[in-house]
Design a protein that fits this description.
By secondary structure, the chain is mostly beta strands. The chain has 2 domains: 59 residues, no CATH class; 200 residues, Fumarylacetoacetase-like, C-terminal domain (Fumarylacetoacetate hydrolase, domain 2), CATH 3.90.850.10. The chain has 5 helices and 20 strands. The chain starts with a strand and ends with a strand. The model has no long low-confidence stretch (mean pLDDT 95). GO terms for molecular function: hydrolase activity. It comes from Nocardioides kribbensis.
Length: 269
């Protein structure tokens, strides 16, 4: 089930996106979104007698984390190597504020404090219920679904500050979308699911979740052993190699097999 958050120009609504999709999860031109009675994380999936053509609505960030976005650093060996970092012995966590979240088509603002703004295409896990100390074998029980994220990073600030808060915490530094897929389970695919990033149409990242150092159950277990996770919290699972700079005017597309494509442009703040 693809759960979207959208607007027709009035108050935001939640809905279920229906219609055929291609191998990458992109819907066909006849797809519609059927409105829901409220946020399915809290009221369940209650369909209304109201539908809109997908092409007629504006998609928003599919989830607004009530408390936090938890990022995982250096979770792909090749990415750690390209930045000259050692591999972590356990998941490396950092936090992005929920104010960093924006949706499909929203601008990524280039702050004046940086000269080195990077894209990082990632698979994102959306938590479905309050949980703590989740064993790896029970991780799927607390996952609501998956979406696409761009863990935007001011790389020069990351180096100078050492810790990640400022480098990854600016407004607009966490695009999410286009929807949440509740039926996808990347762990069921032997070769993982592909994670690709395109900068102005050119492929710059081409990886697979199979290359993660710590898999999704391990990440959910580790994060929940430190902090209670709430419905709507998001875990970013790390980025493949190929990160690089974005400039004002650039368009970044992140495609994950089965999830579709998240597209944002860079604008001057």
């Amino acid at each position: 089930m693809r759960i979207a958050r959208f607007t027709t120009g009035e108050d935001p609504l939640y809905g279920v996106v229906t219609g055929e999709v291609d191998e990458f999860g992109q819907p066909d031109e006849d797809s519609v979104v059927v409105a829901l009675a409220g946020d399915p994380l809290y009221v369940g999936v209650k369909l209304l007698d109201q539908e809109h053509k997908l092409s007629d609505v504006r998609l928003l960030a599919p989830v607004l984390p009530r408390s936090k976005v938890v990022g995982i650093g250096r979770n792909y060996a090749a990415h750690a190597a390209e930045l000259g970092h050692d591999l972590p012995e356990e998941p490396l966590m950092f936090l992005k504020p929920n104010t960093s979240v924006v949706g499909p088509g929203d601008p990524i603002f280039y702050p004046r404090q940086t000269r080195e703004l990077h894209y990082e295409g990632e698979l994102a896990v959306v938590i479905g219920r309050i949980c703590r100390d989740v064993p790896p074998e029970q991780a799927t029980d607390v996952i609501h679904g998956y979406t696409i994220a761009n863990d935007v990073t001011a790389r020069d600030l990351q180096r100078s500050d050492v810790q990640f808060t400022r480098a990854k915490g600016f407004d607009s530094f966490c695009p999410l979308g286009p929807w949440i897929e509740t039926d996808l389970d990347p762990q069921h695919f032997k070769d993982g699911v592909s994670v690709q990033t395109f900068l102005n149409g050119e492929t710059v990242q081409d990886g697979s979740t199979a290359d993660m150092i710590f898999d999704i159950p391990a990440l959910v277990a580790h994060v929940s052993s430190v902090m209670t996770l709430l419905p709507g919290d998001v875990i970013l699972t790390g980025t493949p190699e190929g990160v690089g700079p974005m400039e004002v005017g650039d368009e970044v597309e992140i495609s994950i097999a089965g999830l579709g494509t998240l597209t944002n442009k860079v604008a001057q703040r």
